[in-house]
Amino acid sequence: MQTGARSYSWDCASSVWNVYLDTVGALIFDVRDSNNRIWVWTTEPTDADCTVAQAIVWAAGRVQVDLIADQWVLWPAFEGGPPMDMRSVGGRAVWTRSRTSHVVAPAGYLAEVLPQDNPDIGE
């Protein structure tokens, strides 16, 4: 995750996610790099009894809000368009087009989607 003049080196594969349950039953988390620098932290907790899809959407939203403000971070997007969103559709966490809410891929499978599988890819 590094581009441009404000390049920082962050190896996402070695990042540590710390997920906690606070005293009022809300989930909170932070993401740290191998030097223990915090890159993402919870600004809006969510209920601990949420569904798996809701938890994924919540976590992706917090990551997107915290990181996308830095121009050096690459977030999934179509050429010339805004970044994609993570949403819950039919009880599943999915990547969607920001402008149309069209489902592009399930969470965890975006890299596996090919243009022939989804006409939105390759635009």
Alpha-beta classification: alpha+beta
Helical percentage: 10-25%
| Uncertain stretches of 5 or more adjacent residues | 1-5
Q: Tally the helices: what do you get?
A: 1
What is the global morphology? globular
Strand content: 25-35%
Mean pLDDT: 76
How would you spell out the order of helices and strands? Answer: EEEEHEEE
Radius of gyration, taken over Cα atoms and rounded to an integer in Å: 15 Å
The total count of strands amounts to 7
Taking the alpha carbons of the first and last residues, their distance comes to 23 Å
Main sheet makeup: 4 strands, antiparallel
Description:
The chain is of the alpha+beta class. It is built from one helix and seven strands. Strands 1, 2, 3 and 4 form a four-stranded antiparallel sheet that branches. The chain has a three-stranded antiparallel sheet with strand order 5-6-7.
Question: What does the secondary structure layout of this molecule look like, with pairings?
Answer:
Elements: E1 16-21, E2 26-32, E3 38-41, E4 46-47, H1 52-68, E5 85-89, E6 92-96, E7 103-106
Antiparallel strand pairs: 1-2, 2-3, 2-4, 5-6, 6-7
Keywords for this entry:
123 residues; alpha+beta; three-stranded antiparallel β-sheet; disordered N terminus
Write a brief caption for the model.
With 123 residues, the protein is of the alpha+beta class.
